[in-house]
Amino acid sequence: MKQHIDKPLAFLIASLVLGGCMIFVSAAFGILGRGFSGITSVAFSHLVLGVGGGVVLLLITLNSNYRHWRKFAPYIFGLAIVGMLLVFVPNLGFAHGGGQRWIVIFGVSFQPSEFLKIAAIMIAAAYYSTIRAKSETFTWGVGGLVAILAAPIILLVIQPDIGTLGIICMSVLGVFFAAGARARDIAIIICIALLSLGALAYTKPHVKERIVTFFYPAENQLAEGYQISQSLMAIGSGQFFGRGYGQSVQKFTYLPEPMGDSIFAVAGEELGFIGSTVIVLLFLSLALRGYVVAARTTDMFGGLLAVGISTYLAGEAFINIAAAMGLAPLTGVPLTFVSQGGSAMLISLASAGILLNISKSRRT
Predict the structure, then answer these.
(1) Which of 15, 102, 137, 327 is the 20 to 30 Å CA partner of 236?
(2) 260 with 292: CB under 8 angstroms?
(3) CB distance 190 to 142 below 8 Å
C-alpha cells in the first residue's frame, strides 16, 4: 500500500515557511525605509534563491527515498568538510561580520557550514544505525561522537561560528541519545561542553563579550548590549496583541539586523504576545511531530535521521528566539524558515523534505 506523507507535519512546515515569508517581507520594508540600496538583491536572494530554490530541493528530497542517504552519508560529510576548508582559500572565501564563513562561486555566495549541519546529522544517523547495540559502549558510542564532531569543532572554532557549532553538536547529540546512549555518557559530554565553552570564553574575546552581555545586558547598552536592548524594546512594545502586521517602529530605526538575528523582535512587535506564542508553539509542534515520525519509522536509520533533523530545525529556532528575548547569548543563529539567508533556507527546506519523506515510512 502506498504511504503518504504525515499531513500534520506538512501543515506545520508550510505554515512556518509562508508565515516566515510574510515576516521577512515586513522586516525588509524596515531596511528599505532606512535607505538601504541593496534591498532588492537581498530580497531576491532570500525569496527567489532561498525560498524558491529551497522548495525545489524540498520536492526533490521528498520524492527521494531517504534510505539512499545512508550509503552516501560519508561522501556528503566529506564534501561538507571540503567546503568548510574552502572558506580559507584566498579569492574564494571571504569574511563578513568578523567571521570567515562564506565562499563565492560564479558571483553567488554560500555558507558551507549550513550544508555541514545536515551532513553531520546524516553521518551520525548512518554510523549509529550501523553499530546499533554498541552505541551503549563508551568506545563506540562516545568515541564515534568525538570522531564525527572533531573536524566540525576545529573548523567552526577557527572561522569562528560558535552558533552553528552549537546547532551541530546539539543535533548529533540528539541522534546519539536516540541511538541508546547511556545517561552517564550524556552527562559527561555536557560537562565537557560547558568546560570547553569556558575555555573558548577565556581565549576568544568575542565569545567572552557575548556571555558577559548576556548576564549584564544593561551595562553596555550602546556597545555589546545594544542589540539585545533594542530587541527587548521592540518585543515589549508589541504588548499583548501587537502593533499590527507591517507596523513595527523599531525596524525602521534602531533595531540591528531586522531581517537576520533580530527578526523575531520584528514579529514580536507586530504580532504581540499572542503572535509570538503562536510562533513558539509552531516550532515546538514541529519538533514533537518530528519525534513522532521518528518513533513510527520502520528502520533505525530513518528514525535517527528524523530525530537529528527535528532537533536541528526546531533547536535552531529556539536558540534564535531565546537570544532575542535575552534568555541566551547572541550567537548569530537564524530563525528557521524566517531569517534572511539563502544558504540557511535552502538547507532547512531540503532537510524538511527528507523529514517528510521519512514520514512516509511508518508502522501501521
Answers:
(1) 15
(2) no
(3) no
**Grid cell locating 51:** 525560498
Phi/psi-derived region of residue 11, left when phi > 0, alpha when psi is between -120 and 50, beta in every other case:
alpha
Give the predicted TM-score (pTM) of the model.
0.92
pLDDT of residue 309: 97
* Residue 31: count of CB within 10 angstroms of its CB: 19
Q: Which residue has the cell 502506498?
A: 2
Alpha-carbon distances, residue 75 vs 60, 82, 98, 120 (angstroms): 19, 10, 30, 11
Q: Where are the domains of the chain?
A: 7-359
End-to-end CA distance of the chain: 11
Within the chain, what is the greatest distance between any pair of CA atoms? Answer: 63
CA separation for the pair 255, 275 (Å, rounded): 19
Give the model's confidence band at 171: pLDDT under 50 very low, under 70 low, under 90 confident, else very high. Answer: very high
Q: How far apart are CA 314 and CA 321, in angstroms?
A: 11
The upper half-sphere exposure of residue 2, i.e. CA atoms within 13 Å in the direction of its Cβ, equals 2
Q: What is the mean pLDDT of the chain?
A: 87
DSSP 164-197: HHHHHHHHHHHHHHHTT--HHHHHHHHHHHHHHH
SS3 state of residue 349: helix
Q: What is the pLDDT of residue 41?
A: 75
Lowest mean pLDDT among 76-80, 278-282, 324-328, 346-350: 324-328
Q: Give the contacts of 288 (CB within 8 A, at least 6 positions apart).
A: none
Query: CA 325 to CA 118: how far, in whole Å?
Result: 27
Contacts of 216-219 with CB under 8 Å at 24 or more apart are 217/326
For 13-71, what is each residue's pLDDT tens digit?
999 999 999 999 998 888 777 766 667 777 878 888 889 999 999 999 999 999 999 99
